[in-house]
Amino acid sequence: MNKIVKETVDMMPGQLLARGVCRHMGSMGFACLEEFVPAKGLRVDVLAMGPKGELWVIECKSSKADFQSDKKWEGYLEWCDRYFWAVDSDFPLALLPEGTGLLIGDAYDAEVIRMAPEAKLAVARRKVIIQKFAAIAARRLQALRDPMARV
User: Fold this and answer.
1) How far is CA 6 from the centre of its chain?
2) Residue 57: phi, psi to the nearest 5?
3) CB neighbours (10 Å) of residue 37?
4) Helices in 2-150 by DSSP H: which ranges?
5) Residues 136-147: pLDDT tens digits?
6) Which residue from 104, 36, 130 is spatially nearest to 76, judged by alpha carbons?
7) What is residue 90's three-state secondary structure?
8) How far apart are CA 38 and CA 44, in angstroms?
9) Are 106 and 114 in contact (CB under 8 A)?
10) Residues 27, 25, 120, CA angle at the centre, nearest 5°?
11) Which of 61, 75, 102, 109 could potentially form a cystine with 114 if both were Cys, beta carbons 3.0 to 4.6 Å apart?
């Protein structure tokens, strides 16, 4: 089995969806981090930082059960300028709350179907998140280059 196919097989459905979302966001000029922790007890699936420093949180839901078990999503709203759900084309869209953005995607790409309303972050909070984003991205890159590094 070739390495690319094997890596895809080893990924969970939500991870595959996040990969497609990150590819799409990259095509829009955003840099993405998966599994970003903005504060203790919170972990967003994708934090996307745009070319002007805008911050979007995208929660990837691979099934109705996955969505219904998420009780923390409203806590993510205070950590981003825009909040989105990412689901596949078979997801029951009527479950998703109004006033949030929507991406439809798969393991390879995604598309913004509904733009999320903007709620600009305070300058101080934005600075903290962007600095944390940069530090985590640098540590993850270093760990890829040197798995034995203390990061």
Assistant:
1) 23
2) -100, 135
3) 14
4) 3-9, 13-27, 64-68, 123-145
5) 999 999 999 998
6) 36
7) coil
8) 8
9) no
10) 130
11) 102
